[in-house]
Amino acid sequence: MSDIASSIARQGIRALIIVNGHGGNYVLANCVQELNAHGPIRAGLYPAREDWADARKAAGIVSSSHEDMHAGELETSIVLAYSPGAVRAGWESADHLSGDRRYLTTLGIGAYTNSGVIGRPSLATADKGNAVLSYLGQSAGRLINLVTAQAD
């Protein structure tokens, strides 16, 4: 990331926002934190965990972010909204919960689900997916304003 930041800074770009479609990507969060600590540009990561939480609430997602980890209510709603044919047949009855996943980074998701689902896709709707993405699109402006103001 520092190479990218240095390269774009040489071109006169003073701010960078990394758009992350993976809700739990802590590695990118650490990279952005390092860029802001050591320059040469101001950086932001979007959406942050809190942005996802706010979008879930705005859309009426009822599953918690912990129980709705992969292919659950949130992700299935988004896919139903924008590419319904990409949702596997049987999603309405594919709910699978896996509460304690403390060894996920060691064992991988396969240790906790055979199907890839950890969550409740049965609660998904295209309307919820549209609402999540609409909220995220509108709220991105706050970070854009913050990062660009800090870069000036």
TrEMBL record:
<protein>
    <recommendedName>
        <fullName>Creatinine amidohydrolase</fullName>
    </recommendedName>
</protein>
<dbReference type="GO" id="GO:0046872">
    <property type="term" value="F:metal ion binding"/>
</dbReference>
<keyword id="KW-0862">Zinc</keyword>
<dbReference type="GO" id="GO:0016811">
    <property type="term" value="F:hydrolase activity, acting on carbon-nitrogen (but not peptide) bonds, in linear amides"/>
</dbReference>
<keyword id="KW-0479">Metal-binding</keyword>
<comment type="similarity">
    <text>Belongs to the creatininase superfamily.</text>
</comment>
<dbReference type="Pfam" id="PF02633">
    <property type="entry name" value="Creatininase"/>
</dbReference>
<dbReference type="InterPro" id="IPR003785">
    <property type="entry name" value="Creatininase/forma_Hydrolase"/>
</dbReference>
<keyword id="KW-0378">Hydrolase</keyword>
<dbReference type="InterPro" id="IPR024087">
    <property type="entry name" value="Creatininase-like_sf"/>
</dbReference>
<dbReference type="GO" id="GO:0009231">
    <property type="term" value="P:riboflavin biosynthetic process"/>
</dbReference>
